[in-house]
Amino acid sequence: MTTCPLPHEETERVLLGHGSGGRLMAELIDQVIARELGTRGPLEDAAVLTAADVGPGGDPVLGPGADLVLSTDGFVVTPRFFPGGDIGSLAVHGTVNDLAMRGARPIALALAFVVEEGLPVEELRLVTRSAAKAAQDVGVPVVTGDTKVVGRGAADGLYVTTTGLGVRLPGARPSAAAGRVGDVVLLSGPIGAHGTAILSAREGLGFEAEIASDSRPLHRLVAAMLDAGGEDVHVLRDPTRGGLASALNELAAASGVAVEVVEDDVPVPRAVAAACELLGLDPFHVANEGCLVAFVAPRSAPDVLAAMRARPEGAGARAVGRVVDGPAGRVTARTLIGSTRIVDMLIGEQLPRIC
Amino acid sequence: MTTCPLPHEETERVLLGHGSGGRLMAELIDQVIARELGTRGPLEDAAVLTAADVGPGGDPVLGPGADLVLSTDGFVVTPRFFPGGDIGSLAVHGTVNDLAMRGARPIALALAFVVEEGLPVEELRLVTRSAAKAAQDVGVPVVTGDTKVVGRGAADGLYVTTTGLGVRLPGARPSAAAGRVGDVVLLSGPIGAHGTAILSAREGLGFEAEIASDSRPLHRLVAAMLDAGGEDVHVLRDPTRGGLASALNELAAASGVAVEVVEDDVPVPRAVAAACELLGLDPFHVANEGCLVAFVAPRSAPDVLAAMRARPEGAGARAVGRVVDGPAGRVTARTLIGSTRIVDMLIGEQLPRIC
């Protein structure tokens, strides 16, 4: 408590852009949160716990090579109900997918609600029902939860934080830092649907009839990919906040490699492209909730791609680029006319409260 | 979407009292959340996952008798900094304690922030630092996290959801449903400090100099109790929201027994008693964050009590009552003058946003 103003600069404050999944957010996490927590290593959406982390509990707790994976994710999406899903199903899918990106099969979920006073009980019921149905479809039980209520105006209806516990599939070692020069970049399906669906629903833009969120669980797709490619599946990431561009930038930086994609090989649905053009958005920066990008060793890439295409959620899978020798973290796109552009991370905020 | 109003009754809405830890909250969880999720069994603050729940992952994931415990908890306390702690340390202690109440040693924490646009970055830094320090003191790493930013007015500064993963200590089987007639009711220390400290700090009542929150980790106390009493430690619970009265009511109901406490054996600090008298609060309903109540088989109760008293956080431990034969869920207190009163659960809201 001081009565004199700060001399030169304004007190730094959290901006909406700090939650974007882009560069501002990476800086906030790196310089404030990870620094204070003393955590190191590549930015992953889920943590792996080995036998050494778990420690003995009398007898060994974990069997040989059996690793646990833990992930947590807050959901503040608005509107809470949108074409293709709602905050309940999204919260389950998002967390299941974070586990899957570390090669884990989900075994338990925990749900924590922060509810604003005045929310219709029926809406809480519908969101819970949707989360329960999504969890049942995934095949993972919700084992525990928590509910807090805050006064009117102290939250925007309902926030959901979902935590997932998983067990790593045998032979699975995907990590953001494991990309190698020569890896093939595979994309499981078209991009941009979630972000444009949310924006359209929020602003009443009229694309709702054409664009639905791609929110869906990806753990079965990942299991099929690991079955086909094993440890040759080096990197898995679902490009959510910040879109494909931010995901590729993070992965390239974490692996110390460069990535080159062929822009026209990245599928963007016609309605998504139209919405993005109208709104001045780059589809590469728009959030997804039902696709993944993988870096796979070239010898296994054809088998992994075939395994992806054999599943409905990977039916549109294709190779979209390569991991190449170059400055660590550089992502470029070759365009139709043969030129090359830098694909940068989202800088600030494109679209707040997308998930 | 319907344009005609609901015919007879108002749409039911979530009230502040639904977050109180009392009867309204139990009803909301029972009739909406647990019902939709299809969960059953006694209300526990953490879930136990056995080898059967985890399933095989090639080889068995969990060693024989090694059970995992998962707990999640949202923290919305206001003010975020208060005598004896802050939202960061409270979030760590609260979750560590929920694990401990199932007999688990904590092995990993996950932190999820919902931040309101405009929060000073320095405040986020201080809260993170405090959580990091609390985790270090406990001896548990924060392994993963998430940060969401919502617009001004869409949250009250900062909410923290903490999830803890633990491993059950050998021989530990405490459960809310395991209380038996004849058990001794042990209380680890004085009650009422957390709730009165928060209220005093929030409202500027002037008790701040005298009352600090009892927020602290209880996992070492629990380890000592289990070491002394093993499976004779039937029930463990930290009486947070809703206070000792609500905790005893829940435990008595879950175990299908009655509980009788001796009112004057329950230690209430002088300053807490004064604050409660001034504010018209019953100390039995005031939240705690650093004490626990246990139901212990009579043959082990002296040893367990001695083990509690040998630790600083259990120095004030004492036997405060008995599990008795009677209507399931009935809790009574014998008073100084020999009369008996019913100790009911907190009904609605005593003090919102206490944790």
From TrEMBL, chains A, B:
Pfam families, per the entry: AIRS (PF00586), AIRS_C (PF02769)
Similarity comment: family membership: Belongs to the HypE family.
PANTHER family: CARBAMOYL DEHYDRATASE HYPE (PTHR30303:SF0), HYDROGENASE ISOENZYMES FORMATION PROTEIN HYPE (PTHR30303)
Gene3D superfamilies, per database record: PurM-like C-terminal domain (3.90.650.10), PurM-like, N-terminal domain (3.30.1330.10)
Residue ranges of every copy of the PurM-like N-terminal domain listed in the record: 44-167
Protein name per its UniProtKB record: Hydrogenase expression/formation protein HypE
Domain PurM-like C-terminal positions: 180-332
